[in-house]
TrEMBL record, chains A, B:
Residues 341-368 are annotated as: Disordered. Residues 13-56 form the HTH lacI-type domain. Residues 354-368 have a biased composition (Polar residues). Keywords: DNA-binding, Transcription, Transcription regulation. It comes from Sinomonas flava. This is LacI family DNA-binding transcriptional regulator. PROSITE patterns: HTH_CROC1 (PS50943), HTH_LACI_1 (PS00356), HTH_LACI_2 (PS50932).
DNA sequence: CTGAAAGCGCTTACAG
DNA sequence: CTGAAAGCGCTTACAG
């Protein structure tokens, strides 16, 4: 598109010029350009040739042919967390460099995404969109396929459903991240480790969960299903999840939360119940957003390069839009465990400690 | 533009018609349409009005304007805080309702905004953009005027410089908010109240500061310049600002921070120095973002309806784009003081308490 | 800063 | 089917 634009802009040839070159009058060229019928085929040929030669476009056409920079659409499932801000920052960052414009929308949780995907794809096509980046969305495989069917490049970041095979997905090394989190907790001496996950079907959640499970298994620690609670990547899930885990007969001494937002919820509920972190309960988050750093205590968290993920997704979409080959169907960026203040060895080998804590708090709980 | 487009298609109004209506010559209208500078502001107004009335678009514009929904550009100064997420959420929210698309860019702190405003305005015109929303930006009055000269509707949210008179600005009742914050602290018994503000020139900062000052003055409390520190709306400013305030011979017993981000920085630095909030230091933030609720202790904060501000800005831009009259040149939405855990009466009438705290921490400070 | 005049690029109406 | 002529809508160059 960039090339076409430049040619058109450079030439800015006139209709008269074309007429001269074709050896006809201006009105005749005008007729050809506007698709009038009353032109001899032979004449039309000559004019068409001249037209092509000087790269003429009518004033109206010019605008359409030279429509400025590429436009990429970015669809967020929701726009609530530090996670999305970071991803969007990365995208906008690279967009500025690449001279591309970014259209943002929120699909709003409903998998419908406002318009049906067919209509949306058609609209994107009509408006010459270069591609689509879908962030943590619940688009179904069928919906994403609709875009691909129309030839629109699509890249997904941390999708909630497995994407079709012709859609590039960008994410972090979630399995390795989950492993690092669990290893850290096991190394501190924890054995009863709860997992407060994201949406059960989400690829990234699955990977984090399996990283965590693989560590337990390799250390001969039983994986107890009741210690695994899936939910949304939101603080409410942390609050409810902690309550649930504390209600177990053997509550965990450590929790691996699949996002910082979830961890913040855990922190808040723990504080409300008088459970000290990390003395009574160790906590690891995931994402490594500013939330992790700002919380009290500062959150040990598996950081993922969210801005880089955004940049990477845009790079991949543009590459596809320009017909360049994909180097990978799945782009996976490294995670890193950042140890802060929310993790420590378990208080005592005696497992009754936590349950006593939680029991005692039942009485003194403020009636919120 | 749905309406305008339809009108334009129906009528296909000409420049001459606009000229007649505005009582000027065709060349003059041409100048306005093409953003030439040499038109008297008064004349420009008349032409702009006539233009809007007949829904005129230039031949080039017509092509671009016709297909698809309106596109509004949103330019953020930066995209770092919960504040921007909330504003953007409000904008996208209303965009979905209004059937409008939103193009997001980050101007990147530099007042240059990538392209010069003239070129950017021209490009927006070429691409048939319906309008521009500028969030907390450092665009100068001259830069914003460039957009208006091209007839592009512009709305600013919390600008860092005073906007030109033909630009609508959307904000909250900052003066009242500053007043509420200070009243609350004074009512608790505080007299030495520091102010950690935003950029000195920013309208919203000025208003918050003056609300604060008016309370002190009406209570016969001296306003000490050394207790007022301007800076950026970021946590770093809270950290540095607290250090500065603590270095005073009479350090404050309470701080009013002009944003939650700043307050979070204060909280972090206070914690590092072993200063307890609210026992040793009361703290009020501004914005009422999730940050305020999630921090420990939860932050007393003047909440502003950020999402509503976003919605309101978009509504106003679209109204202008459709040639409807403005109901107001300045939209001001209500703030509300939300009292949480970070404020309490001062520890003792004896003012030496805080300074002892800060002095003692000098020795035990971790060497970060 | 304004607009009469000239001009540009294109289209239309029509004579051939 | 073709193109000279007239015309349209807009812009430019410039005198006031």
């Amino acid at each position: 598109m960039a090339t076409a634009t430049r040619t058109a802009t450079k030439a800015k040839s006139t209709l008269a010029e074309v007429a001269r070159l074709a050896g006809v009058s201006a009105p005749t060229v005008s007729k050809v350009v506007n698709g009038r019928g009353d032109v001899a085929p032979e004449t039309r040929e000559k004019v068409l040739a001249a037209l092509a030669k000087v790269g003429y476009s009518s004033p109206g056409q010019r605008r359409v042919a030279a429509p400025g920079p590429d436009v990429v659409e970015v669809a967020f499932d929701a726009l609530t967390s530090a996670y999305t801000t970071d991803v969007l920052t990365g995208i906008l960052d690279y967009a500025a460099v690449a001279g591309v414009e970014v259209m943002v929308s929120v699909t709003g949780g409903t998998s419908g995404a406002g318009l049906g995907p067919e209509r949306r794809a058609q609209r994107m096509l009509d408006q010459g969109r270069a591609g689509l980046i879908v962030v943590t969305s619940a688009f179904s495989e069928a919906q994403l396929s609709a875009f691909r069917r129309h030839g629109i490049p699509v890249v997904v970041i941390d999708p909630q459903n497995p994407p079709p095979s012709d859609v590039v997905s960008v994410g972090a090394t979630n399995w390795a991240g989950g492993k690092a989190a669990a290893e850290h907790l096991v190394a501190l001496g924890h054995e009863r480790i709860g997992y407060l996950g994201g949406p059960e079907g989400a690829e990234c959640n699955q990977a984090r969960l399996h990283g965590y499970m693989s560590v337990l298994m390799s250390h001969g620690i039983a994986v107890k299903p009741e210690r695994i609670v899936h939910g949304k990547f939101r603080s409410e899930h942390g609050i409810e999840g902690l309550k649930r885990l504390l209600s177990l007969s053997e509550p965990p001494t450590a929790i691996f939360a699949a996002s910082d937002s979830i961890a913040v919820g855990v922190l808040r509920e723990a504080r409300r119940q008088g459970i000290r972190v990390p003395e009574d309960l160790s906590l690891v988050g995931f994402d490594g957003t500013a939330q992790a750093e700002d919380s009290v205590p500062a959150l040990t968290s598996v950081s993922q390069p969210l801005q880089e993920m955004g940049r990477s997704a845009l790079r991949s979409v543009l590459r596809q839009a320009h017909g360049e080959p994909l180097d990978s169907h799945r782009v996976e960026l490294a995670t890193e465990l950042v140890v802060r203040e929310s993790t420590a060895p378990p208080a005592a080998p005696d497992p009754s400690r936590i349950s006593r804590q939680s029991a005692s708090s039942d009485g003194s709980r403020p009636s919120t």
